[in-house]
Amino acid sequence: AEPVTFGLKLASFYAEMQRNRVRLAAARENIATGAISGAVGTFANIDPYVEEYVCEKMG
User: Fold this and answer.
1) What is the structure's pLDDT at 10?
2) 24/1 Cα distance (integer angstroms)
3) Is residue 26 part of a domain?
4) Is this prediction's pTM over 0.70?
5) Hey, which of 15, 42, 51, 55 would disulfide with 34, CB 3.0 to 4.6 Å?
6) In the 8-state DSSP scheme, what is residue 39?
7) From CA 32, how far away is CA 29, in angstroms rounded?
8) What phi and psi, each to the nearest 5 degrees, are found at residue 6?
9) Smallest Cα–Cα separation from 36: which of 56, 22, 11, 16?
10) 12 — alpha (psi -120 to 50), left (phi > 0) or beta?
11) How many domains does one find in the chain?
């Protein structure tokens, strides 16, 4: 066994949290999509401009 300082443990925890913040930001970008164009995306019942407007308003 090797001795580990409390400072090293805190530094490791901090580095892990920073990586998690980056991963969370990337995940939010990937899931921030919107589609109200229908089940297969044909826009049969709605104009594409309506979808664009709604997605823009929702962020």
Assistant:
1) 98
2) 34
3) yes
4) no
5) 55
6) T
7) 5
8) -65, -35
9) 56
10) alpha
11) 1
CA 50 – CA 44 distance, rounded (Å): 12
Q: Is residue 1 part of a domain?
A: no
CA distances from 32 to 3, 13, 28, 58 (A): 45, 28, 6, 10
Q: 35, 51 in Cβ contact below 8 A?
A: yes
Q: pLDDT of 1-51, one tens digit each?
A: 889 999 999 999 999 999 999 999 999 888 878 888 887 888 888 899 998
Quote the pLDDT of residue 5.
97
On whether residue 24 sits in a domain, the answer given is yes
d(CA 46, CA 59): 20
The domain of 19 spans: 6-58
Q: Which helix (H) or strand (E) holds 45?
A: none
